[in-house]
Amino acid sequence: KLFFTDYGNAAKVERCDMDGMNRTWIVDSKIEQPTALALDLVNKYVYWVDIYLDSVEVVDYQGRKRHTIIRGRQIRHLCGLAVFESYLYTVNSDNLSILRINRYNGTDVQSLAGLDHAKEIRVYQKRTQTAVRSHACEVDPYGMPGGCSHICLLSSNYKARTCRCRTGFILGSDGRSCK
């Protein structure tokens, strides 16, 4: 799945398949300017920062179990968000500090370090990476991903795929080749 935020005409947090199909709103109320987003892949939770409401909230992948982690002036100007173990990590763009927030009780907030020009944060650790299984977009014997001549996108599950073409090309009637 692909998760993303939008605060155009109607602010929301959404998810869809990697090929853009099955687009679903998972949060569309009591939300103003959702920006940074992070996933807890193990427990299937979506965390986001709302810079208008000065809040960090969480919801499960289906849009249930929503609650606020932390809200208020203490977390103004947040950008970037990452989840690791019991904590959320974010960048305060006002004073360029990295904050650590306990994701189970938002009362434990610590400033860890200062960084010039930081706008995003990521955690790279072996335990945060899910194991890769064989999937529909694996390269075939002819060097084509999923048998697609240009682009292979996973669809509703790891066994299904959709072929797409680069700009200027159209998908052939076989659903795999681009012309």
TrEMBL record:
Gene Ontology MF, one: Wnt-protein binding
Q: Which GO terms describe its biological process?
A: canonical Wnt signaling pathway
Enumerate the InterPro entries for this protein. 6-blade_b-propeller_TolB-like, Cueball_EGF_LRP_Nidogen, LDLR_classB_rpt
Name the SUPFAM superfamilies for this protein. Answer: YWTD domain
Which SMART domains does this entry report, sorted A to Z?
LY
Question: Can you list the GO cellular component terms from the UniProt entry?
Answer: plasma membrane
Instruction: Output the superkingdom of the source species.
Output: Eukaryota
PROSITE patterns the UniProt entry points to: LDLRB
Show me the LDL-receptor class B repeat boundaries: 1-43, 44-87
Q: What protein am I looking at?
A: LRP1B protein
Q: What is the lineage of its organism?
A: Eukaryota, Metazoa, Chordata, Craniata, Vertebrata
